[in-house]
Amino acid sequence: MIQTAKRLQSVQEYYFSRKLREVRQLISEGKPVINMGIGSPDLAPDITVIEAMQKAMFDDKAHEYQSYQGLPELRKGMADFYKNHFNVDLDFNTEILPLMGSKEGIMHISLAFLNEGDEVLIPNPGYPTYASVTELVQAKAVNYDLSAATNWQPDFEVLEKSDLSKVKLMWVSYPHMPTGANGTLELFEKLIAFGKKHNILIVNDNPYSFVLNGNPLSILQVEGSKDIALELNSLSKTYNMAGWRVGMVLGNPTLIDAVLKVKSNMDSGMFYGIQKGAIEALKLKNDWFEKQNEIYTKRRNLIFKLAEKLNCVFDKNSVGLFVWAKLPSGIMSEEFIDKVLIEKHIFITPGTIFGSNGEGYIRFSLCVTEEKIQQAIERF
After folding, report:
1. Which pLDDT score, from 0 to 100, does residue 117 have?
2. Residue 343: which region, alpha, beta or left (left: phi > 0; alpha: psi -120 to 50)?
3. Predicted model pTM
4. Which of 164, 214, 232, 257 has the fewest CB atoms nearer than 10 Å to its CB?
5. Under a CB-based contact definition with an 8 Å cutoff, are residues 49 and 235 in contact?
6. 111-124 confidence digits (pLDDT tens)
7. How far apart are the first and last CA of the chain?
């Protein structure tokens, strides 16, 4: 029997990949399951984006292999996006690399900078892929605690007292997923200073800045940040283009070149039509975000009602595509969501999949229609 690689012993199948099989099975049995677990936008991209992709199908070079670095006009669009929304100047030829989704970038960055045995600071709670990719490349995931008491921000006093001698990289994500805590320039300044002091690459994963957030920020706004930081961003949530797989990594040319070395050995360029659609998306004005956020605000208000019905505590000032809610004392996350799935046919994400500090919490997605959320409320 062919044995799998040892690296697979350190990771499991992605939680949603497993759990959604259970959800699909219930649906196949005729159960009216409402899926509030997944952050996959159910809204459509702007019509100009779709039309740009359709028109691109007839271009002479539409179906050829594309550049590993993407079309120049796509990189220019990404640079303009950062200038217009974050006031960050980027050289579109050397400081931007388009990606097939920012999740791809987590693997590319890890392969580019981590050696076996290197340590990586992972937020707890945080996006599970940071830890799984770290283990896949045979580095060591080291959790750092986040809590409501510090508004889900790192405790730098605790970090400074820990052994950082083997730490090569630190993952951060603000606005924070799953809690919705927003970042601040003061936090980003502390992170950059911390990274420079200990020679740790700081990577901010930033796909939620424009969802229910009146103050979008980038870690690259901090002076000197390009010396020690990369930022990942994505069109998935910002422009309802999750399935299109369009992301980007931004930073200084040396760091970007290292990521490109990995990427160029793993794909053959992003499909031309998708790039053309992305270019149009990046041109959309603020009224696009306002329109989306009107919809998400109505949904979030209903989710708040549902969370209150479940006697949960939550932060009404959180941002992003989710509502992070604390269960009543003594109730375990996974037991609770399994009970709700079986008895009420509603799938909610347990906080534990984001780390041990997620115990006692659940996460609701806003990628559900108002009608479905109202149905969920009525089931209780």
Report:
1. 94
2. alpha
3. 0.94
4. 214
5. no
6. 999 999 999 999 99
7. 50
